[in-house]
């Protein structure tokens, strides 16, 4: 089988026999719910196995499988008890879900600058801490680990929790530790544009049993982990339903078992592409906080000027990162306009908060400047929304890598003239 997709992340390009076998295993058993009787041979325990293998892979004790990365973020915030009146520091360059999940927990997102790594700037984080700050959401944007040493130092100094948004960085690491195992708790996504995919889905990972118990409860109506024991009378908090089903679990499991292969292939292809671009001037590669640990899903070029970035981007059929409607705070009209689903702009008028927060376009000048000069080339994530419709994929041959490098070289050279 294997139909080559025309967009998506590396996992989407590797859907094959393994996913098919896992899915058939579930379908032929006729049992699709994540819980079942231990002794029932038709209960294939895909979600349960995924949670075990994922936790082991990340290097933490616990994982909860959920139905999306957004749900995973909601669970991390709930686990930490973040709610009305609490401020969470979050970068202005991230997928909108990082910010909207904070708002939906009735907390206040405080937007921070990104630095040359295009991840949250620790200096700005420190500047924006107030007595209401509860957590830092460190988004490993574009598969690049945040400067976790600086972030963890700040968190310890100010007694803040750290949530790692690893949606774009499953499998990445920072100084030898997997992303998602460094802060208090991590959130992951399995949507089509991510490292591995089940169409949709998400994971929560943590080493802390109390956070696990609360994340689990929030994702399943307040139940104790794995609904063990007598539940009625034992439920700790009010929860919702963000459960993953066995079909999703089956595909996610097959994909997780490919992740080492994916990481190795992307890193090798990125190295080849980068090597073919050496000697070119007019741009720099964006700073990677851990060269060995990044996911290598994208190659980001930062040009000297906005004009050059726009001219180059136009040549390869894309736009600089500043234009992304889903990843740049300037283009998130519902966030800037505080348009929540209620008639009044709660949580911004929450009495527990007691002060006024304002958002406006161009409030993060350093972020705006960097994004206006940055252009993404795909190494393994072909995503128009992320500004990376052009580039290579995890299945590209050396010849295709050479052609893409040649196209880049040709257009960069003409910019100078
Ligand atoms: C994709 C993404 C999410 C949300 O994941 P979904 O599975 O789409 O809900 C959250 N944060 C970041 C940084 C993302 O890229």
Outline of the structure:
The protein is built from 14 helices and twelve strands.
Would you kindly provide a written description of the structure presented here, covering whatever features stand out?
The protein has 14 helices and twelve strands. It is globular and about 70 Å long. With 417 residues, it is of the alpha/beta class. The model has no long low-confidence stretch (mean pLDDT 95). The strands form three sheets. It has a seven-stranded mixed sheet with strand order 1-9-8-5-4-2-3, sandwiched between helices. The protein has a three-stranded antiparallel sheet with strand order 10-11-12. Strands 6-7 form a two-stranded antiparallel ribbon. The site of pyridoxal-5'-phosphate has 15 residues, from helix 4 and helix 5.
Task: Present the secondary structure layout.
Blueprint: H1 10-13, H2 17-29, H3 46-58, E1 62-66, H4 69-79, E2 87-91, H5 96-104, E3 108-112, H6 122-127, E4 133-139, H7 148-158, E5 161-165, E6 173-174, E7 177-178, E8 185-189, E9 202-206, H8 209-219, H9 246-256, H10 259-276, E10 283-285, E11 298-303, H11 306-315, H12 333-336, H13 365-372, E12 374-378, H14 398-416
Parallel strand pairs: 2-3, 2-4, 4-5, 5-8
Antiparallel strand pairs: 1-9, 6-7, 8-9, 10-11, 11-12
Helix pairs in contact: 2-9, 3-9, 4-5, 4-8, 10-14, 11-14
């Amino acid at each position: 089988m294997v139909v080559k997709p025309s967009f998506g992340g590396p996992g989407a390009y590797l859907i094959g026999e393994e996913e098919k076998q896992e899915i058939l295993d579930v379908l032929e058993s006729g049992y699709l719910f994540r819980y079942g009787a231990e002794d029932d041979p038709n209960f294939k325990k895909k979600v349960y196995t995924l949670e075990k293998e994922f936790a082991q892979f990340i290097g933490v004790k616990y994982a909860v499988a959920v139905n999306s990365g957004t749900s995973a973020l909601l669970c991390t915030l709930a686990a930490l008890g973040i709610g009305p009146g609490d401020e969470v520091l979050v970068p202005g360059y991230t997928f909108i879900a990082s910010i909207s999940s904070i708002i939906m927990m009735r907390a206040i997102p405080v937007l921070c600058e990104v630095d040359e790594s295009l991840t949250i700037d620790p200096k700005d984080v420190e500047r924006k801490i107030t007595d209401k700050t509860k957590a830092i959401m460190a988004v490993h944007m574009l598969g690049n680990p945040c400067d976790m040493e600086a972030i963890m130092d700040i968190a310890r100094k100010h007694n803040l929790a750290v949530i790692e948004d690893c949606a774009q960085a499953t499998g990445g690491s920072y100084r030898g530790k997997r992303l998602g195992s460094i802060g208090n708790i991590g959130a992951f996504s399995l949507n089509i544009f991510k490292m591995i995919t089940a169409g949709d889905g998400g994971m929560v990972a943590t080493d802390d049993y109390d956070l696990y118990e609360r994340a689990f409860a929030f994702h399943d109506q307040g139940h104790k982990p794995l609904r063990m024991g007598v539940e009625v009378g034992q439920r700790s908090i009010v929860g919702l339903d963000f459960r993953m089903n066995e079909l999703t679990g089956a595909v996610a499991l097959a994909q997780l078992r490919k992740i080492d292969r994916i990481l190795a292939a992307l890193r090798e292809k990125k190295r080849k592409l980068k090597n073919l671009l050496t000697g070119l001037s007019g741009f720099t590669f964006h700073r990677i906080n851990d060269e060995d640990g990044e996911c290598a899903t994208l190659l980001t070029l930062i040009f000297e000027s906005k004009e050059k970035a726009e001219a180059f981007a136009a040549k390869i059929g894309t736009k600089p990162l500043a234009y992304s409607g889903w990843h740049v705070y300037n283009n998130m009209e519902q966030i800037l306009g505080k348009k929540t689903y209620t008639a009044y702009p709660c949580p911004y008028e929450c009495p527990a908060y007691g002060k006024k927060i304002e958002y406006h376009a161009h409030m993060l000048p350093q972020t705006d400047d960097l994004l206006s000069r940055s252009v993404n080339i795909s190494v393994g994530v072909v995503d128009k929304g992320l500004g990376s419709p052009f580039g290579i994929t995890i299945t590209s041959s050396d010849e295709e890598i050479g052609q893409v490098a040649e196209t880049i070289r040709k257009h960069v050279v003409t910019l100078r003239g």
